């Protein structure tokens, strides 16, 4: 199975540092009383994050594991396919959570920021679903073709990992960032994100 091993490693490398859902929430909140409506809004969004962050992490871990264990092409295909499906579901769920929370109250252009975040999260969901289709279509019987196909998937995955980090960034600014930083669920995801960044 040496043929796919270097490519599998590339797939794992494409994941490192990617898919951390909340990257802007560093540091403590400003300590002000804030805006109760905005805090309630932030809670809705933040409470949806840990479960999806865990799902994305588990999917990343599965891909890395399949890549480093030098599994057969068929096993790698099945593992990656399921992982991309899970990532697609996670970003879809986040998009739905942000959509249902509505625009952040009392924020300039809150409507636009909310819709942009929903659009970005839904686009990520679609992109991971497309990667699943791409992996499902690979020829596992031909080692060379499979390796080439995985290389393409790794390239796409690298791009997606970068864009997943910016999907919520525009929403997480100013008062919204402070309100989200106060929420225990967002703090939890931000802490795990910092830990992952340190490990990576």
Characterization of the model:
This protein has 200 residues and is mainly α. It contains seven helices and no strands. Mean pLDDT is 82; it is low at 22-30. The chain is elongated and about 60 Å long.
Mean pLDDT across the residues is: 82
How many helices? The count is 7
Beta-strand segment tally = 0
Biggest sheet details:
none
| Rough outline | elongated
Distance between the termini: 26 Å
Radius of gyration: 18 Å
Order of helices and strands: HHHHHHH
Give the structural class: mainly alpha
Q: Could you list the spans in which at least 5 consecutive residues all have pLDDT below 50? A: 22-30
Strand content: under 5%
Helix content: over 70%
Summarize the structure.
The protein is built from seven helices and no strands. The chain has about 200 residues and is mostly helical.
Which tags fit this structure?
single chain, 200 residues, mainly alpha, elongated
Topology, element by element:
Elements: H1 5-15, H2 36-68, H3 73-101, H4 110-136, H5 143-164, H6 174-181, H7 184-199
């Amino acid at each position: 199975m040496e043929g796919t091993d270097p490519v599998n490693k590339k797939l794992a490398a494409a994941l490192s540092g990617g898919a951390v859902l909340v990257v802007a929430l560093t540091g403590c909140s400003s300590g002000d009383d804030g805006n109760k409506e905005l805090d309630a809004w932030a809670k809705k969004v933040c409470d949806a994050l840990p479960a999806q962050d865990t799902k994305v992490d588990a999917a990343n871990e599965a891909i890395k594991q399949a890549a480093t264990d030098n599994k057969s092409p068929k096993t790698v295909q099945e593992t990656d396919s399921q992982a991309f499906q899970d990532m697609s579901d996670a970003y879809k769920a986040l998009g739905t959570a942000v959509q249902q929370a509505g625009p952040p109250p009392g924020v300039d252009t809150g409507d636009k920021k909310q819709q942009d975040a929903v659009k970005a999260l839904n686009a990520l969901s679609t992109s991971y679903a497309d990667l699943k289709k791409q992996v499902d279509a690979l020829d596992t019987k031909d080692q060379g073709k499979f390796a080439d196909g995985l290389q393409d998937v790794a390239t796409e995955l690298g791009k997606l990992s970068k864009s997943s980090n910016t999907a919520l960034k525009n929403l997480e600014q100013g008062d919204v960032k402070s309100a989200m930083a106060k929420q225990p669920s967002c703090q939890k995801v931000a802490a795990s994100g910092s830990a992952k960044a340190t490990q990576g």
